[in-house]
Known about the structure:
Elements: E1 6-8, H1 29-32, E2 45-59, E3 64-77, E4 87-95, E5 98-99, E6 101-113, E7 116-121, E8 128-131, E9 136-142, E10 151-160, E11 169-170, E12 177-187, E13 190-197, E14 204-216, E15 219-233, E16 251-260, E17 266-268, H2 273-282, H3 287-290, H4 300-303, H5 310-324, E18 326-327, H6 339-345, E19 347-348, H7 350-363, E20 367-373, E21 393-400, E22 403-407, E23 427-431, E24 438-441, E25 448-458, E26 464-473, H8 474-485, H9 490-500, E27 504-512, E28 521-529, E29 532-536, E30 539-542, E31 564-565, E32 570-579, E33 584-588, E34 593-597, E35 602-611, E36 614-623, E37 627-628, H10 633-646, E38 651-655
Parallel strand pairs: 2-12, 18-19, 25-32
Antiparallel strand pairs: 1-13, 2-3, 3-10, 4-5, 4-9, 6-7, 6-10, 8-9, 11-16, 12-15, 13-16, 14-15, 16-17, 20-21, 20-23, 21-22, 23-24, 25-26, 26-28, 27-28, 29-30, 30-38, 31-37, 32-36, 33-38, 34-35, 35-36
Helix pairs in contact: 5-7, 6-7
Amino acid sequence: MKKILLLFILSFSLATSYAQNFNFGAITLDDVEFDRNKIDSNANAVVLKEFGTASIQLNDSKGITELIFEYHVKIKIYNKEGYKQANIIIPTYKDGTREELISTIRASTFNYENGRFVESVMDKKAIFTENRSKYTVLTKFTLPNIKDGSIIEYSYRLESPNLFNFKKWEFQSDIPKVYSEYLVYVPAMYNYNVSLRGFYKLSDTKSEVAKECMRISGTPIDCSKIWYIMKNIPAFIEEDYMTAASNFKSAIYFELSEQQMLSGGNQKYTKTWKDIDYELTSEKSLGSQMKRKDLFKDVMPAILKNSTDDLSKAKAIYEYIKKQIKWNNYYGKYSEDNIKKALDMHSGNVADVNLSLISALSAANLDAEAVILSTRDNGVVNKLYPVMSDFNYLIAKVNINGTSYLLDATEPLAPFGLLPLRCVNDQGRVINLKKPSYWIDMVAGRKTSTSYIMQGKLGIDGKIKGTIITHSTGYAALTKRKEIKKYNSPDEYVEKLDDRLAKIKILKQEIQNIDSVENALTETYEVEFSPVANATEGDLYFNPFFINPVTKNPFNLNVRTYPVDLGAASDERVTINIALPGKYTINEKPKDLAIGLPNAGGKYVLKTLVEDDVFSFSQILQFNKAIYEAEEYPYLKEFYSKIIQNEKADVSLKQTK
Length: 657
C-alpha cells in the first residue's frame, strides 16, 4: 500500500498569496448547479468548500493559554441518501476540570426555489449535548428543511485546553470534497512535529510570519502562519476488515515537541523511551501497581494448589483474576485508583484488571511484564518517538521456558493466550520494571477455526433429518461463547437461533464446553428441513449451501487504498453426507472448484459427488494471513465473487432404476 508520511519542521518560507475563509450564506448558482460528475458520479453529497483555522491564544479571564479552533463548511446534498450529512455530531473531550467547549454554532439550509434562494435558519433549540462517556461529550444538531439539491452550511468555534495535540484536520471524510483548507497560527515559542497521513498528497502548502500574533505578560510573540490545502479529494469509504479509519484517512496531525519558556528555559515533550521507561515504572498508577505482589501473598497457595509447573501456575492465576475483577468496559493504560481497590470492589478498568494479573504472576515468581498498546479502533502508535497519548490499553505478558504469552483478563470467555481482537493492532510497547522497554508485534495467538459436519437422511417426503455438529476454536469460539452468554440460558439462545433459521427446524440440541474455554466449543443439533426446491418424477433439486453460505462480497470498492485486516487467519470446513432414498446420479451440480489467493494467501475448495447412495459435499475456505495489502485487494474481491457465483448453483439428482 502506498502510504505517505511526511514530517514537517515549522520553519517555512514567506508566501506571497493565500486564501481566506468564505462568507457565510454567500450561496451562488455555481453551488446549486455543481456537477458531481466532476468529482464522483456516485456521490450522495459533496463538500463544496470547507475552511478551518486554529490558533493558540491567551485567555485572560482564565489565565491560561488555549487552542481556538473555528470550522466552516458548505455541502451540497443530491438525494435522500445524502440527507444524513445534515445530522451533525461534534465530539469534545473532558478530563476532570479540563474541558473543551463548543460555542457560536451557526447553521442554515439553502434551497433554490422559484428563481431565488430561500434560507432556513436552524433554531438554537435544535442544539443539544449528550454525555457519551465520562471523557466524551457530543454536541448534536440537525439542519432544517432538507431536500434533494439543498445546500447546507454551518460553522462553530471550539475552545480547548489541549495544546499537546493541537487540532488535527481531516481532509478526507465519507463524502468527496472539492476544496479543503486549514490555516494554523503557531506561536514561535511552540514547536510541533507535524505529519500528513493517508494516501493523498497536499495540493498546496504556504506560510508566512504573523507578527505579534499574541502577547504574554507584555511580551509580543510572533507566529508561523501556515496553510494546508487539498483539492478534489475522494471520499474515504470504510469497508469490512479494517482497523481505525484514522490510520488511513488523509489528515494533518500535530504533536507538541518543545515549548520555549519566557524565562529562557525550555520544556521538551518529545522524550526518549529511556525517559518514558523511568516515568512509567515510577508512575503510581502503573509501575507501582506492578509491584503489589503483597496483595496476593495470602491467597497464592490456594490459587496454585493444583499447579505442577510454571505454565499451569500462570493459567491458574489468569483464571483467578478473570473471576476476581469484572471489567467495567473502560479502556486505559493506568489504574483508575489502585489495584487493591479494584480487587476489593471486584471491578476496574482494563489497566486495573491486567496490572492485577501482572502483580499476581510476579507473586508466583513468574516473569511478568506490561504491554501498552493502541486498540484497533484507536489507530496505530507513532514509533519515531514516544507519544503516550497514542496508547489507550494495557495487557500482561508472561515469559515461560522461552515462550511469551500475551494475556488480557478482561474477557472471561477467552482461553489463556488468546487476546481479544481489539488488541491485535500493529505493535505494543513492553514495559519491564528492570529492563529497557521494547516493541512487540500484536498478533493473533490463534486462528479462527470452525468445522460443520452433517450426517443426514433424505426421506421420500422430501425432508432431510439429521445431525449437525459444529466445532469452534480460537476467535470463532470466543465470538460464539459471548453470543450464547447474551441470553439467560443456552436453551434461549437455541430458541432464537431456531427463529433465525427460516428453513431449518431444530428438534434437539446440546452445547458443550461453554465455560470450559480451553476446549473446543461443540454444538450438536438434531435438525429437520426441506431444502428440495422441486421433486418431480423422481428428480431432486436443492441448493447444498445451507450451512453458513457466502451470500455477500465484503469487498466492493473499485480501489481500496488501505489493507484488509482480518485480525487473524481463519479456517472453515463444511462436510455434508446425506443418505438418499434410492439410486441417484448427479444431473447438475455446482462446479468442483479449487481456487487460491496469490502467495499461498488462502484457498477455496469445493467438491460434490454421489457414491453408494450418499450425496457428499465438502467445502474448505481458508485465509492464511491476518493482513492483506491494498495491492492484494483485487484478488480478494475476485476470490469472493467466484465463490458467490458458484454457490448460486443447485444440485440436480436424477433417480435411476
